[in-house]
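Possible regression after last week's pipeline update?

I re-ran a chain I had predicted before the update to compare outputs. Posting the input and the new output here so someone can diff against the archived version. Not blocking, just want to make sure nothing changed silently.
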Amino acid sequence: MLNVGSQVGRTVRSRKVKLDGVQKAHASRVVRRGAEGDWLFSPAGTEVVGSDGSVSMQPADGVQLFPTLALPESGGRFVAWCWATAPEPPSDHWLSPWISVDVAAARDEPFSFLDLELDLWVSADDAGIVDVDELDAAEADGLIDVAAAQVARDAADELHRALCPGYQEAFDGLGWRLLAEVRGRPADEP
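New output (post-update):
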């Protein structure tokens, strides 16, 4: 979430830290720095390595946004992905371009965020907020306090309202344009 030290073209590590401390990281390339934040690209097949020893492969090309500012209403934070269609879709939502969002808290490490469990997804066909049960369980287990959990819920609602009316225009369409550019495709074909 910090916008420090990034240079366009540089390879960096993007890190997601769960409330229980488990981490997942993958290599990305900085493709843009702007007032809105930093955009990173990683291609389909990128290895995602977990601190628990797990290894998975990213199913599709994607650009990841680490926003500079908190959300205006809730004060919450997030990290978002604009995803291309997966070459070998592991599930139905990978059959067409879509956006995934992690409701998050900032960390002091560049390109790193604390995942507050709530996730959003939005595509041409549908949208939703998922993992509400995971946030509830984390709150019950004392991994997140009541106030922070409420900010996460409010942020998820705010993002859902903002993204649903036209996901192709999300983030002023910049994510889709960057994804198309990096992939060498026309701007209307992420």
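Follow-up from reviewer: compared with the archived run. The CA atoms of residues 116 and 136 lie 10 Å apart. Marking as no regression found.
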